[in-house]
Automatic annotation (TrEMBL):
Assigned keywords, A-Z: Membrane, Transmembrane, Transmembrane helix
Stretches of the chain forming a coiled coil according to its record: none
Stated name of the protein: DUF4239 domain-containing protein
Organism: Actinophytocola algeriensis
Membrane spanning stretches: 7-25, 45-64, 180-199, 205-224
Superkingdom, taxonomy of origin: Bacteria
A Pfam family annotated for this UniProt entry: Bestrophin-like
Length: 251
């Protein structure tokens, strides 16, 4: 099912439930003095709603920045790998460097990326391939100043690959919103929706519509937060396009 359909169902479902609760409150609840409570309830709602909006904005911006950084990091990792291979090709007996680089890229695309999109653990196969690649560069002989410079350049680029790989795996397995923040987000959303139920007014239909829209909006933002937790899965879905392009350049 499409992520947009799932999100729409969540928004509509929660909005209908909240509207139903608002209807029941207006139907069977105490009505005397409710209008007089609007000023007090409105002050509390302003405080709770403002804090909830700030927290949600902070979390969403942080997750969005994380997704952008993950995409940029994948291109840096792939570009550094290609740069390392191109520099190593100037060295004698460096055929194994290209072979290991291709193996590494295929490992990332075919095995690691599906696991990252699921939020699963990544085994050490990619690290082992990267170590063999580093060993190939280290074993290549450098006979003059030019080849020494190229060998150093290849080593520097491989170190960049190592750094970007580590950041990629950290984002895939250790990112997202922790349980404490999730508790604050959900509890704040419930309180923000519950407070308007205390409001009163001459038009029940308008009151019910306001509560439903507020509940749907909170649900939409929480759904967006959940989808952005893993930059390689869900709604973010950063793909392995950088590595697919690198594999073409390494042929």
């Amino acid at each position: 099912m499409s992520i947009y359909v799932v999100g729409l169902l969540w928004v509509l479902g929660v909005g209908l439930v909240a509207g139903g609760l608002a209807y029941l409150v207006r139907r069977i609840g105490e009505t005397q003095g409710v209008v007089d409570n609007n000023e007090a309830a409105g002050q509390v709602f302003t405080l709770v709603g403002g804090l909830q909006a700030v927290l949600l904005a902070f979390v969403l911006i942080s997750l969005f920045d994380g997704t952008t950084a993950a995409e940029d990091g994948s291109y840096k990792e792939a570009d550094s790998l290609v740069a390392a291979v191109w520099a190593a090709r100037e060295l004698p007996d460096s055929e194994g460097v290209t072979t290991e680089a291709r193996t590494y890229v295929r490992e990332v695309i075919e095995r690691e990326w599906p696991r990252m999109s699921e939020g699963g653990d990544i085994d050490d196969a990619g690290w082992s391939t990267l170590e063999r690649l580093r060993a190939e560069v280290a074993a290549a002989p450098a006979t003059d100043e030019w080849t020494v410079d190229q060998k150093n350049e290849a080593s520097d680029q491989l170190w960049s690959v190592y750094q970007q790989r580590q950041e990629r795996l950290n984002a895939a397995t250790g990112g997202g919103v922790n349980s404490v923040v999730w508790f604050a987000l959900v509890a704040g959303a419930i309180m923000a929706v519950a407070l308007p139920l205390l409001f009163g007014g001459p038009k029940p239909a308008t009151h019910i519509l306001i509560v439903s829209i507020l509940a749907g909006t909170m649900t939409l933002l929480l759904f967006a937060t959940q989808q952005l937790q893993n930059p390689y899965g869900g709604g973010a879905q950063v793909g392995p396009a950088a590595f697919e392009s690198a594999l073409e350049r390494l042929r």
